[in-house]
């Protein structure tokens, strides 16, 4: 063992013994200093004068881009071996020049065809040498974005077949050129007879060109002889280039990049539309990927080329409608349900028997439930594998109560089993849904619950204020009281119908506001019962509305009682203004709802146009 170790030590090249003056000459490009050192009696051996990383003087001069000193070194025959000498990382000076982008040094290190110079043996070795990462100088040029250098290296001595060389990262020159978007280099490589299209994770250059959005590279590859192979080839995740093209905009690209990726998707589908029917390792098709991750444009393009792909489902037997509902994308869902291919799929169940309406209910999406319930042919009585309709899945939060009301508006009813269950329930708030989906509580539900509790504290202030005012008004009737017999203590205008209307509306306002206040106080005491809070808040809101209207009526009739016949016009104005308040509020609420719906439709149309 000792003998072997000693032998190995002798074969190791000594490191870190470079003359400081020699290092300075190479670092600063000082030809005079180099010449003086080499003319001295103690001139250093350039092939064995190395830095700790095994760099020769030629490595250093090349790294700093000193053309003069590099030319001086390589013209000396006795130093020609430096051209192909590797450092501790396996890099030759050619690797370093290619990595740094020094085109002039590349021309010095490799003879040019323009000059007709013969090949040097040492240069030919450097040409083919791979470093410890398995990369040639071509790889280094491409990885660092130096297309001109890569082109120069590839054009010379094609018999060395540099385009076939693959490094340890499984990257071929074609793959690196495609990744960098160098369409000229890609064209040069695919024009050769023999080249590799290998890439990491089983990907080919078309995969990476699509991922990076290199449309010019995609065009060149699709025009090459290997286009049919590349477009069909699947990577290690069983994804074709079309699967990656379907995720347009998923990584937050700007508008111009999305437009470029849209064109790439169209190009791939024009060349081979059958790829839309190829699933990946997870059983997802391009349309389903676009629905889950991509924007509107990707879905639209795929359906334009392959309309029957609407029937494709994933491993959970969910089609694009199911996935759009799960994603809660109203724009995508509106586009899909307006297409004829999806009109007959509105009631399609997934593996668990859930239709899109079931899923919309589970995800607490009232707007989507409303959208689906409006579709022609939707069946709200469909049950899933557990025998539950969409209404059966409604819980007791405020959001789920809204969904229940929406479904009921479109004629939805509980399932037969649910009716039977309800008949035997005790008279207290019902339990949660029978089999709720194992989903985390969405943030929106947390905020809704918080808003409910806040409302139960705010609304009592309003109702208490109304009760206080109406209580005082009951004992200070308009016109005051008689002070003379025989009607002493009676209201002056007791015989007027307007005063009787005032008293009735005042009593109604007081009683309804007190009822709302008591109900809200009781609900706030049960702060952990969300069902009770939401129900009490809903009921008390209606009662409070009655008290507000009664208060307005009391005010109008009170003013009317006080006005003499000569000022009847003033009483009419007061009554008109009082009546205008509820009319305005009703009109405004309807107008606001109509504006919201119109805005949603406008957003969907704008997405469809783009």
From TrEMBL:
Gene3D superfamilies: Ankyrin repeat-containing domain (1.25.40.20)
Domain PGG: 451-561
GO cellular component: plasma membrane
Disordered: annotated segments: 1-25
Polar residues bias locations: 1-20
Subcellular location: Membrane
Coiled-coil regions listed: none
SMART domains registered for this protein in UniProt: ANK
Matches recorded under PROSITE patterns: ANK_REP_REGION, ANK_REPEAT
Protein name: Protein ACCELERATED CELL DEATH 6-like protein isoform X2
Provenance organism: Cinnamomum micranthum f. kanehirae
């Amino acid at each position: 063992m000792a003998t072997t170790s000693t032998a190995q030590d002798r074969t190791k090249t000594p490191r870190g013994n470079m003359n400081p003056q020699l290092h300075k000459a190479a670092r600063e490009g000082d030809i005079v200093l180099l010449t003086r050192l080499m003319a001295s009696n103690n001139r250093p051996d350039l092939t064995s004068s190395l830095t700790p990383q095994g760099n020769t003087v030629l490595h250093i001069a090349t790294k700093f881009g000193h053309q003069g000193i590099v030319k001086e070194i390589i013209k000396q025959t006795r130093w020609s071996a430096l051209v192909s000498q590797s450092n501790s990382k396996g890099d030759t000076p050619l690797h370093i020049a290619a990595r740094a982008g020094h085109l002039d040094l590349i021309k010095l290190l490799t003879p040019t065809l323009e000059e007709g110079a013969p090949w040097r043996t040492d240069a030919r070795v450097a040409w083919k040498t791979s470093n410890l990462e398995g990369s040639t100088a071509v790889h280094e040029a491409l990885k660092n974005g130096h297309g001109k250098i890569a082109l120069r290296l590839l054009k010379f001595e094609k018999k060395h077949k540099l385009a076939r060389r693959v490094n340890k990262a499984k990257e071929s020159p074609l793959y690196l050129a495609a990744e960098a978007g160098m369409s000229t280099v890609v064209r040069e490589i695919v024009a050769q007879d023999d080249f590799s299209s290998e890439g990491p994770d089983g990907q080919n250059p078309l995969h990476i060109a699509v991922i990076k959005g290199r449309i010019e590279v995609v065009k060149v590859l699709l025009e090459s002889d290997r286009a049919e192979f590349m477009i069909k080839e699947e990577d290690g995740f069983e994804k074709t280039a079309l699967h990656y093209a379907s995720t347009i905009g998923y990584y937050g690209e700007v508008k111009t990049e999305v437009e470029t990726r849209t064109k790439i998707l169209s190009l791939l589908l024009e060349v081979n539309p059958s790829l839309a029917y190829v699933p990946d390792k997870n059983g997802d098709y391009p349309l389903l990927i676009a629905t889950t991750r991509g924007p509107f444009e990707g879905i639209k393009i795929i359906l334009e080329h392959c309309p029957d792909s609407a029937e494709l489902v994933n491993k959970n037997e969910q089609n694009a409608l199911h996935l759009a509902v799960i994603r809660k994308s109203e724009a995508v869902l509106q586009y899909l349900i307006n297409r004829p291919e999806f009109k007959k799929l509105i009631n399609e169940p997934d593996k668990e028997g859930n239709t899109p309406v079931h899923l919309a209910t589970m995800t607490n999406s009232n707007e989507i439930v409303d959208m689906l319930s409006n579709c022609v042919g939707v069946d709200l009585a469909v049950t899933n594998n557990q025998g539950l309709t969409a209404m059966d899945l409604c819980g007791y939060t405020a959001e789920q109560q809204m969904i229940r009301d929406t479904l009921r508006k479109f004629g939805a009813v509980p399932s037969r089993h649910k009716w039977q269950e309800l008949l035997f329930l005790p008279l207290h708030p019902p339990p949660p849904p029978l089999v709720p989906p194992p989903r985390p509580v969405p943030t929106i539900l947390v905020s809704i619950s918080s808003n409910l509790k806040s409302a139960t504290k705010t609304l009592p202030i309003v109702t208490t204020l109304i009760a206080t005012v109406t209580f005082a008004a009951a004992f200070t009737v308009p016109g005051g009281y008689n002070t003379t017999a025989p009607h002493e203590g009676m209201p002056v205008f007791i015989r007027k119908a307007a005063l009787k209307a005032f008293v009735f509306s005042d009593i109604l306002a007081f009683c309804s506001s007190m009822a709302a206040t008591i109900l809200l106080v009781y609900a706030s005491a049960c702060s952990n019962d969300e069902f009770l809070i939401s129900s009490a808040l809903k009921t008390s809101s209606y009662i409070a509305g009655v008290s507000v209207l009664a208060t307005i009526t009391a005010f109008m009739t009170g003013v009317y009682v006080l006005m003499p016949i000569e000022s009847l016009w003033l009483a009419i104005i007061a009554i008109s203004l009082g009546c205008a308040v509820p009319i305005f509020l009703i009109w405004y609420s309807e107008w606001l709802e109509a504006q919201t719906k119109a805005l949603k439709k406008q957003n969907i149309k704008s997405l469809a146009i783009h």
